[in-house]
Amino acid sequence: MPSLNHLTSFESKEIRLPRTEQVGRSGRGLFRVPVVLLALALAAPAVAVPHAPPAYADAAGVGGDYVPLAGTAAVLDTRNGVGAAKGLRGPASTTTFQVLGVGGVPTTGVSAVLVRLAVLKPTAATWLHLWPAGTSRPTGTMISAGVGEQLSNTAVVKVGSNGKVSVYNNGGQTDIVVDVQGYFTSVPGSTGGGFVPVAHARLIDTRSGLGTATGKIAAGASRTVTLTGGVVPAGAAAAFVNVIVPGASATGWLTVAPTGGTARPLMNHETGSTQSAAVVKLSTKGQVTIANKGSTAVDVVVNVEGYYAASPSQGAGLRLAASRLINTRSVGAGLPVPANGTVDVRVGGTNGLPTRGIAGAALNIVVTPEAAGYLKAWPVGETEASLTVLDFKAGVWRDNALVLRPGTDGKIRIRNGSAKPAHVIVDLQGWYADPAPAVPVAQDTRVTALQAAPLTGAAAGTIEYAYVDNGGNLRWGHQSDLDSFASVQWTVISGGERFSGPPALAQLSDGRLQVSAQFRDGNIWADSQTTAGGPGWNAWTNLGGSMASSPVAARLATGTVVQFAVDVDGKLWAYAQSGSAYWQNLGDQNLTATVSVVKVQDGLRVFAVNDQGAVKTIIYYNDGAVSAWTDLGGTGLTGTPAVVARPGFQLQVFARSAGGTVVSKLQDINGGWPTTWQVIGSTNPDLPVPPVAGSPTVVIDPNTSRATVVVRGTDSQIYHVTETATGSNAWGNWTKTVTADDPASTDPTVLPYQNVNGSSWVIVFRDLNGAPRFYQLQ
Fold first, then answer.
1. What are the phi and psi torsion angles at 358 (to 5°)?
2. Contact residues for 124 (Cβ-Cβ < 8 A; gap 6+)
3. 629 close to 587: Cβ distance less than 8 angstroms
4. pLDDT tens digits for 442-453?
5. Are the beta carbons of 586 and 619 closer than 8 angstroms?
6. Strand 301-308 to strand 638-646: parallel, antiparallel, or no bridges (unpaired)?
7. CA 224: distance to chain centroid?
8. Residues 709, 715, 716, CA angle at the centre, nearest 5°?
9. pTM score
């Protein structure tokens, strides 16, 4: 097989096929595109990522606004048979009750309800959990209580498709009460409003006279207070508060009403100090009236955590995501949080959440303490909170709901304010998505290519392709006949989803193909085949992330697929698809959202260009650890670096210079990098080559072991240059790959592949009409 730099032209054969319609996924059509066979092949670029605008979780136009009810919708009360049969609920029992269409809750357009959940005098320590009826009961806790206690809490729960919700009682005999305070819309509308977070602040304290008269509220008496005018603005529809009854001498309960409106249960309290989250509807003057229904006078403290706007054009919309974030009893050796110690809990970047754009996470915190104390919670990276979120007694489980905006890397920090260790559980019920612009569809992005490992009985693996067209459709190409690039079958697998930038391809450990891409909200979405080698695909999964770039996927030696992407701040993130997967921050290097990945001995090495035009690199090891960052230097380099691995585990990186040339650095045998960048290709003035228009790609010829660099010129033609001898790092002249005029609208991709007749490689790009073109070395 001749080397490319010795060829003055390529003999090509163009095959034009009629468009055909075939049955594909969900009835979508497949089509075959014109194919050109020539002397070359596209080595799947390690991973290219075009710079995208800042991406955040999208709250606009998707619903999630909160609508407070005028009164209280009692949907379940086992004491009198409301919503279900009357009578105590036993251990491990499930009770299902109707929510939609009850007490002012609409029958349609509801995604979730906000409820007050009460457990009354259980005969054994217990906990309750709510979930949408008709689905499997997930792991989670929404309220805990000791023997004979009467406690309440606030929870966000999705409604089942049948309009019902189920509640589970873990232990003992107990009565259960569920009241709906309001609901969240599933579609945009003219009612309700979004959530607006505030720094947790104290508004009312009867002990000191803050916001009210000094002195306890007597038994049977009430107190009217104003919650607006400070961090909560006038005109707010409702406030998310944490209510504290400190130092109570007897058990009791409180009600609350927007002044002049209907009273509803606010919270139950025990002796000592009890905290309970609540959402209180506000009057037009921002006032509420709190009534003491207990037998003794009590102090009342009100801390605010955020408010719900009265307009659907303001605030953040609710997104549902029920999941356990942490349980210190099961993490590692099950070590509790030490006395006066802290634990960081990852919220953003988990369960399909973005790493940014979270106005607040709806959480429930549970503590199982050895001694009495309190918990604090605040965003990582900010000053420790002065307010507590949960008070507890020794040996009794307690929990409380809260809404908290995550801090650095999407984390919150919790302090155990106790003299002894305590286990902590944090459950996620949902999150409020900040409004953000949609990510525009990047135009003319390159094709991604991969040869799959052969399935059982096959001599060679199929070649798989994917690209996002200029309309945002994700197109998958499948080539089972490796001798015929005209046989590639294409189908749109994105359905109604809209993506941007080049997708990533990976083969899962079970042989199934996976494709991932940047969704319109900036999150990374993934889809996989239903069976290895089959035509069917599963539903898309939102991996979260809120990235500014398209993903790059690669597989570790352990079989775990890892997604890499860059956010708007230039941080590199990794998402290892195993266990409790989450986005991990690998460091802020001011990257320009363009990365490539190559497999090395002990993991994956990632390369990217920063905003100063220098190349940075890091190793993501097989065990999930990372190396320190290495700076390869450079000034004015742009685009996506291309990387190949030479024998001896030596890497060579190629990049586009500010002047439009391709420059390179070759790692030495000890793993070091040279100081200066080498210009690739002859600079003979008699052989002019237009400056490089995009990012280079590189391939090691599987037959000659010589490297070839392929680029798109500013004239939209494809050019290449090859080493003069194997491993020499000496280069011939840049040559136009195709003698005929065949302009490319995208950067090329190169893929070495193996078929039954041997090895070869192919170049893939998209023409000015957006159709894929293939050039294969003859």
1. -100, 110
2. 91, 147, 171, 172, 173
3. yes
4. 999 999 999 999
5. no
6. unpaired
7. 43
8. 65
9. 0.88
